[in-house]
């Protein structure tokens, strides 16, 4: 059973992070010089479907990809866990590396062997490249110039995709642009790659990094408004995927908002398996009480919820928790693995969220 393997969860998570195919893409004119709009869209869609299939196959048949087969009940730390959490995108990542090491020429991709070897060596997570080439034959690729799928010592080799040679152009475009601006745009096959010029990565970051995954229009509106409010507050956004606060489970597509020279983020937007989470770092809740009295009930609810804390709370050694009194009851929130308050995605409440973090920013 595929769910018996730990990698199943991680691969399905990676598949869930893929940016959904829109009905229409505003393709930038830079790319229309080479292919017409219909060819670009259809081959982008084919690439998306290929990656979807790869993630699914990795989840269900990891043995066929020569990936670690640790059980789903494996302790979530140590070497086994670390091997799995870096494995589910390994084949997708190999494609990105490959297609930054050559040029498309006449419906085929001419790969530079020495450049590819150097790139793989610097990446440090790829070995036994012959197994990668062999596996990609199952997805329609043809490799000429390899002996037993092994790289020659130097020179070039040819990659073809007979079903649609134009797919090679789209792969090259996605690989190069995502490597320059945001690698997750490749692993998630974000159509935003096509909506800005070849030297413009602005659409690969910003609130769309998360909003493109949201299915609810109200959530998308909230993400855009919250993002702008956090930036106006003076925070610098950091974008990523697979960054879980605890480090022991598949992480989220996330945006974390930092202030200069401070190691801990003030806010975070996270999207994981269809769920949006908004995190607020409030270090001193007592300083928020006067302002909180004028807030809506769903804002007050954040302060009504406490937690049991971590194992260090019992002996008094926990340094990450906060204690406060609200509505006559003492509350405790452990913040050792992240932020202390989680806010509902209500657009009208965004100014309250920002103000509460401002008031409770400092412990004393």
Molecular structure report:
- By secondary structure, the protein is an alpha+beta fold.
- The chain folds into two domains: 2-204, no CATH class; 210-359, no CATH class.
- Helix content is 38%, strand content 15%.
- It has 14 helices and eleven strands.
- It has helices spanning 6-16, 29-32, 37-60, 78-85, 90-98, 113-123, 129-136, 166-181, 184-187, 208-211, 217-232, 289-292, 297-304, 350-359, and strands at 102-105, 108-112, 142-144, 156-160, 236-241, 253-258, 267-272, 275-280, 322-326, 329-333, 341-343.
- The strands form three sheets. A five-stranded antiparallel sheet has the order 5-6-7-8-11. A four-stranded antiparallel sheet has the order 1-2-4-3.
- α1 runs antiparallel to α3 (37-60) and α3 crosses α8 (166-181).
- The longest helix is centred in the first third of the chain and has 24 residues, at 37-60.
- It starts with 5 loop residues before the first helix and ends in a 5-residue tail after the last helix.
């Amino acid at each position: 059973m595929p769910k018996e393997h730990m990698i199943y969860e991680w691969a399905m998570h990676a598949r869930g992070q893929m940016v959904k195919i829109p009905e229409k893409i505003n393709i930038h004119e830079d790319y229309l010089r080479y292919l017409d709009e219909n060819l670009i869209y259809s081959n982008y869609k084919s690439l998306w479907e290929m990656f979807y299939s790869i993630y699914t196959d990795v989840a269900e048949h990891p043995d066929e990809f020569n990936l670690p087969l640790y059980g789903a009940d494996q302790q979530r730390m140590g070497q086994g866990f670390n091997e799995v959490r870096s494995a589910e995108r390994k084949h997708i990542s190999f494609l990105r590396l490959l297609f930054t090491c050559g040029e498309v020429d006449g419906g085929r991709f001419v790969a530079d062997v020495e450049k590819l070897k150097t790139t793989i060596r610097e990446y440090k997570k790829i070995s036994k490249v012959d197994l990668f080439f062999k596996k990609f034959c199952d997805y329609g690729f043809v490799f000429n110039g390899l002996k037993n799928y092994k790289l020659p010592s130097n020179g070039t080799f040819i990659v073809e995709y007979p079903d649609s040679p134009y797919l090679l152009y789209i792969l090259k475009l996605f690989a190069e642009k995502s490597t320059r601006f945001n690698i997750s745009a490749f692993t998630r096959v974000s159509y935003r790659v096509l909506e800005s010029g070849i030297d413009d990565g602005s659409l690969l970051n910003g609130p769309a990094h998360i909003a493109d995954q949201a299915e609810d229009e109200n959530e998308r509106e909230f993400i855009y408004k919250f993002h702008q409010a956090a930036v106006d507050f003076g925070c610098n956004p950091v974008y990523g995927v697979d960054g879980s606060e605890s480090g022991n489970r598949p992480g989220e597509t996330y945006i974390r908002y930092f202030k200069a020279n401070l190691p801990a983020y003030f806010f975070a937007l996270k999207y994981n398996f269809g769920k949006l989470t908004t995190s607020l770092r409030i270090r001193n809740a007592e300083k928020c009480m006067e302002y909180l009295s004028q807030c809506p009930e769903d804002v007050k609810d954040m302060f009504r919820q406490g937690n049991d804390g971590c194992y260090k709370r019992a002996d008094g050694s926990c340094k990450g928790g906060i204690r406060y009194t609200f509505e006559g009851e003492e509350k405790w929130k452990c913040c050792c693995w992240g932020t202390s308050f989680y806010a509902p995605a209500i657009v009208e409440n965004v100014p309250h969220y920002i103000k509460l973090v401002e008031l409770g920013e400092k412990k004393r």
